[in-house]
Fold this protein.
Amino acid sequence: MDEIIKNYLSDGTIIFWSIIIQAIPFLVIGIIIALLAEWHFFKKQTHKPNDSNLKGIVKMSFIGMILPVCECGNIPLVKKMIENRVKLQYAITFLFAAPALNPLVILSTWSAFRSNPSIVFWRITLTIFIAIILGIVFSLYPEKAELITKSLKEKINCEKNTSKNLKDIFKKFCQEFIEMLAILIVGAFIATIIQLVIPREFISTVGREPVLSSIVMILFAFILSVCANVDAFIALSYSNLFSAGSLLAFLVFGPMIDLKNVFLMKNIFSHKAIVMMSFLIFILVFFSSSLLNIFIY
Amino acid sequence: MKKLLEKIWQPFIVIAYSGTVIYLHLSRKILFFIHSDYQLWSIIGSSLLLITGTIKLIQILSTKQKEPFIHSKNSLKIFIICLLPLISLFILDPKPLSSSSYLLRTSNNQTNINNKNSKVSLFSFNPEARSFADWYYLFHQTSNLKTFEGMKAKITGFVVKSENLPENTYLLTRFTISCCSADATPISIPIEINSPIKLKNNDWIEVNGTLAVISDPENKEVESQTIGVKVTNYQLIQIPENPYVY
């Protein structure tokens, strides 16, 4: 009995730390890009005339294609965008589009699904579509201040917020990193507990049901909290059990919302906003993947 | 002392995390956690962390002005949250995923093996040079299992012994990963050992033997067959540097 408990503790530690170790480089790179962007890019951006809402949202959904940041690195960048008064709907569109559209993710999806390239096409299309819908929905939301955390609101109102020189970047880095790390730790801990409790056979058994398969894959993506750069290979390993539509549900939902991400997002958005975004994304991914299952695959 | 701690706890945590990851790289235990393809990313990330943490520490120690203690209410909570995982890692010496994860993660007809780098062929001249992943890949690519009968195999893995298995039958197991151990999936090859010495769960062994078609020990209800190894000799080994297969 002792041996079994010891093994569970050991396995739990390995799973938990693997999520942390895998996320750290992307978190670090994301924070550095965010601080450099704040230092250089956002200052200039404030002088540019604002695009119309829809044009700006569509633009933001494509920016992820040129930035190699996955979901962990993306969150610090979005936080800096909002701190620097980029419109909330633009930041939300970028937040959900960028992880699955970054060039490394497209390449890995192509490499995993060479035999079924339509998966790559639909992953890109559905991601852009859902991110734009979210941008539009939140651009219509009347009380945008309700959607972000109190501490972020205070930072937005603070005039001296922007990094003035490289020395400031080093000063801010540690604070930003630790804030994100603490949240990542909580998310990784919960993901680990769930992985140690729910047998995978249960997920794949339920997944054989045609109606439930999309929900199961969405749930699986949420629990697994794996980096968008490699999730295509994980989806590939389930291709003999699940329909293409449900694999797409996994590939589209995972980079947008997962357990680890939800906790990281708490650093930016209010609980209400996170629940609304998660629910909307769930509904959109579920219906679009089910429609693909029915009409295309 | 308290004031010093208040000033340096943030760079301390940053340096502690980078130091831990660098230690795992130096001790080669990093491969218990992540795919080898991610090593470079991890080295870059932890090096950047170490550099920024050290610069911040020097900045704090070289200025007399007290650092503003931002979010002071939450600081202790955040400090403890960040410290606990470090302590857990040092108390529990990291080991690769064990047989306990086998049952939780096993799922029929599903494996993470992509074997994109493998040039394994059924007709290669030296079957004994094939790895665990090579054999597993071949078994699942070939419909006629009898093709393998009589071939010699030398494979390494850890032992899973469940109550359902016949007395001298074990599952020689490895975990496959795509990214990190969070996505690990077990793959097993049954082995039959005629030895009075009983193997325990999680024993790492290297076996030499002959492939044979046997009844599938994991599928008793449906009479199905699988390919297994009739072991001629085996030896207990240390946990390999890279316990997972890709």
